[in-house]
Here is the input.
Amino acid sequence: MFEVLATDSGCKARAGRLTVAHGVVETPVFMPVGTQATVKAVSPHELRELQARIILANSYHMFIRPGLEVIGKLGGLHRFENWDRALLTDSGGFQVFSLAKLRKVTDSGVHFQSHIDGQRLFIGPREAVRIQRVLGADIIMAFDECPPWTAAKEDIDVAVQRTVRWARICAEEWAAAAEIPNSKLQIPNHQQLLFGIVQGGGCAELRRECAEQLAALDLPGYAIGGVSVGEPEEEMLRAIEYAEAALPVAKPRYAMGLGQPNQIVEMVRRGVDMFDCVLPTRVARNGTAYTADGTLNLKRAELKDDPAPIENECGCYACQNFSRAYIRHLLKAGEILGLRLVTLHNLHFYLGLMRTIRAAIVSGEFGAWSRQFLERYKPREDYE
RNA sequence: GCGGCUAUAGCUCAAUGGUAGAGCUCCAGAUUGUGGUUCUGGCUGUUGCGGGUUCGAGUCCCGUUGGUCGCC
Here is the structure.
């Protein structure tokens, strides 16, 4: 299912191939985020044209709306959203911690209130796997506890122990291919790959311990979670290094929720294969485009009569057909096309970046290429 | 023509006779397992104009101009 095809001589970057039920995914890969069974502002047809090979959806959101019965009845998430390539669902762990109003965490799972209608619900490791079996994604995620970056070390320790315990239960449930109530969709177990999630905050020992415990389960892949939760960039990269060092080389590594283009290059260098991040799509909706030089705020007054495309060398639909002046006008006027064009551009940028990275690794030029890229790319302001 | 009301930031409007403000717009930022949201900053005034009263006037008085409503 996963093969490492080439490894850089100067760092841990590798080019790989991940084979799942709905196709082959070449890594390093960026996965556009489609939380509510849609990558916001773009159609599946456009995603195919952008050469997206795998996208995300979110169990938590699907579970509370429209609900599993609906998706089960409509034949699973692939058919529901008309996406025939690879699909990954997040377990809902993160959302329970970031969105739910009230929640009570016990060793068996999390009791919480829906952020939509206040309905009281429960998700634990077994529930998370069952939900994701109904949804039917190619890759499913273990149910984890994602504490805030600022949490005390004891609390992070508790989260790590729970996350490991829950991962074992998820693996059990996954292996058992249990009956799924209310589902017409029966997916053979081998068609869904379960990924474990490493927690441990900024603590080297906890990251290592968590990664080792999960590695012992011999899951098809591993994610690094508990990042993109407000930590400074350097600490984030260190957390990635701690986790990566204890993960099996032969399995894909997925950095959850990350990151900026320069951060992705840094993480590829550290051996990460898979990424998802809302930035290219979210920031597009606020009028910001990614370019090889950094971000460009398209609402800026100085662009009001600029005939140039967002980015000169870009081959995306927006850049091939429209000026900055026009796109700025659409954004200022609140027109939907503005959001769509910037989203298409940003996804084109991210997906193209990954193809370039992969080609550089394969040809042995990744070290030189990445230095050049990081030299030119001016990141957004530091977090604080 | 007569009478009433009214005139304050680009817009809509606040401000006991005591340092002219708010919302929106505009400008500049933020956003990392989603947030078309939201948040943080910033610019802008001969208070229609001319006089007067007062220690002090956006505020009170007189005149004037524009707007608006009503009446011959």
Q: What stands out?
A: The longest strand of chain A covers residues 14-20.
